[in-house]
Amino acid sequence: xxxxxxxxxxxxxxxxxxxxxxxxxxxxxxxxxxxxxxxxxxxxxxxxxxxxxxxxxxxxxxxxxxxxxxxxxxxxxxxxxxxxxxxxxxxxxxxxxxxxxxxxxxxxxxxxxxxxxxxxxxx
Length: 123
Fold this sequence. Notes:
By secondary structure, the chain is mainly α. 75% of the residues lie in helices and 0% in strands. It has helices at residues 2-16, 22-53, 73-93, 99-122.
């Protein structure tokens, strides 16, 4: 839309210039430069906004250059106990134990215990 306005402005000014005085041509030339400068400023602002919007899609704590500290053995034990307690609550409160429930528990166990095993292997 801005680009269409830009092109329209320059096309009309070029057609109208033919029989104008030098003073009027200078004013039109200055108007073209001002319009172009506004267009550049708007483009720079739009690019800056797009760069800033990129951070909305990433968590505020995400920084790929910083390494995460490995889990301590105490943290591993507490995490495993919380997972076991959650599984106990889910299994005792469920009216029936079916395949989907078992699959969910297995996947959650993998999500919990893979990082624990990796942390313990590093030590």
